[in-house]
Amino acid sequence: MVSEVILGAGLRANLLSLQRTQVQIDQVQNILSTGLRVNSALDNPQNFFQAQSLRSSSNDLLRLLDGVGQSIQTVKAADAAVEAISSLLNQADSIVESAREALAAGQLQASITGNVNLAGKSSLTTISGISNTDDVYFEYYNTSGVLQTASIDIATGESTDDFIAEIKDIGGGGYFNAELTSEGFLKITEIRGGNFTVNFTADNNAAASNAADTSLASALGFGNQINATTRNGGAATNANAEITALATTKLKSGAFYETVAGQGFAEASDLLTGVAATDGGAARFAAAGAPNITFRINGTTTSANIAVSGTTIQGLVDAINTDVNVGNLIDASYDATTGQLSISAIDSSVKTITVTSTNTAAVASTVDFDFGTDTSFQPGAAIGDAEGETFTLASATATLGSLESDYNSILTQIDSLVEDAKFQGVNLLENGTLNTFFNKERTNKLTTQGANLSSSGLGLTAANFTTTVNIDDASSKVAAAKTTLQNFGASISNSLTIIQTRETFINDLVETNNEGADKLTLADQNEEGAKLLALQTRQQLGVTALSLAAQGQQSVLRLFAS
To answer: In terms of Cα–Cα distance, which of 438, 508, 433 is closest to 69?
Structure first.
């Protein structure tokens, strides 16, 4: 049996001291390598778990910061959209002002101008086509809005100046201005802003021939503008050689109602023959004579026949807009909110629009658009009977039509921009609501309420630049939209400032928690380094002491060796 090695007390004490020193060196080295003086609950339970709690709170706040950051981006997206809409509104405002200038330059008063030099004519009856007792009828609205009729009888010896004076005196004066242009052409203007119709009737006889009426109109310079059609089966009764001057840049019908009283305006899908003149009133389109409608531009370009029977309001609109002859000159539309059909010029060449109804069956019919001063077209009870009207549009038509199109395009772009302003499923420009939470318990939050900033939400409506009143209305709506947009922009900017401030605070709070945790667990590198150096010195001294303690046994060994 091998006996155990017995160490002396000195050796044993030195070995134990070296072991303890090594354990301490290992601990200090671990602290230096991790940077923590509390690495586990065994090191310091209280500090360890308190530091864990602080770091857990920091992690919760960091996750909260992700949501806060997304809220900031949502508000920024809305703010960017507000800036873009503001630019579009400025552009819309500019278009409105351009329309105002175009309207003023165009002098949108109902006006017709002839093409025959009447200057210096001492007697109009000396002109071929004009006879004694020929009549020129005027239909116009008085100050009470009641349709009036006035007749000027061209007598032998009546001069151009006399004729002009009689026109100016219609209604007691103040309704019409008549003058000769620099070319000597007769220009007649309704100075109160209303529409008017001029009817040329030869020899003061309702049964005068259509040709005579046309000759009278031509002699005065308006032959290329009238709509010369004959009613009542070509029997030459009640010939129709007349022209209607409008104070607007478009034809606009009376309201189309449903046939049943109380149902309101007609829908675009309703048949023309199912539309009433007034709410519950007589039908606007009595199609017993199966009439066709045509539209002629400037007396030369005529649309294809559009059958009234079986055609809807939208069908009529589409037939006009797709017609190969007039579709690129005029544009038709129907507004179901007002029940009105509109026909606008989209080409600068458009000066007159002639609307004609022609029977294709031997039965009387009625076509009632209620354009201008003419209430309806009523061809006679024979195939081929026709009646219509030529409407002279106010000037600046094409310019205003183009500006209306541009303005409406901006409204469309505003709607598209609002739709695209969504971020992470929230759209503050479509009445969206954004909740931003500022603590992990989700008890503190900021609610950012959106608004409807679409064109309709801003109170903007489709352009109608036909009158100064309409332009003023559009200008007021754009100004109100700008105010609404500015108020909303200020509101979300305030929300953005608050959210960013809270984001900074949360970041600071995260740092505070981390710093608190660090103070509980982090080691002082200088102190730990000094400890390590001291322990290493102690270890070296221990090794030296152990060596000295072992020298006694080595001395005994040398005795045996000698």
So the answer is: 438
Residues 115 and 224: beta-carbon distance below 8 Å: yes
Is the separation of the CB atoms in 36 and 520 below 8 Å? no
Look-up of token digits 């009888």 = 153
Q: 257: which residues sit within 8 A by CB, 6+ positions away?
A: 263, 264, 265, 266, 275, 276, 277, 278, 279, 280, 281, 339
Tens of pLDDT, residue by residue over 1-57, are 455 666 666 667 767 777 777 766 766 666 666 666 666 666 667 766 676 676 777
pTM over 0.85: no
Q: What are phi and psi of 150, to 5 degrees?
A: -130, 145
Residue with tokens 């109100």: 480
Q: Assign 238 a pLDDT band (cuts: 50, 70, 90).
A: very low
**CB-based contact 188:198 (threshold 8 Å):** yes
Query: 42: exposed, middle or buried (C-beta count within 10 Å: 0-12, 13-18, 19+)?
Result: exposed
Which domains are assigned to the chain?
Answer: 61-105+402-517 (1.20.1330.10), 109-398 (no CATH)
Residue 169: alpha-carbon gap to chain centroid: 47
How many Cβ atoms are within 10 Å of 501's Cβ, its own excluded?
A: 10
Q: Which residues of 350-361 are buried (b: 16+ CB within 10 A; e: fewer)?
A: bbbbbbbbbbbb
Strands (E), 359-475: 366-367, 386-392, 433-437, 445-449
Question: Tens digit of pLDDT for each residue in 148-157?
Answer: 889 998 888 8
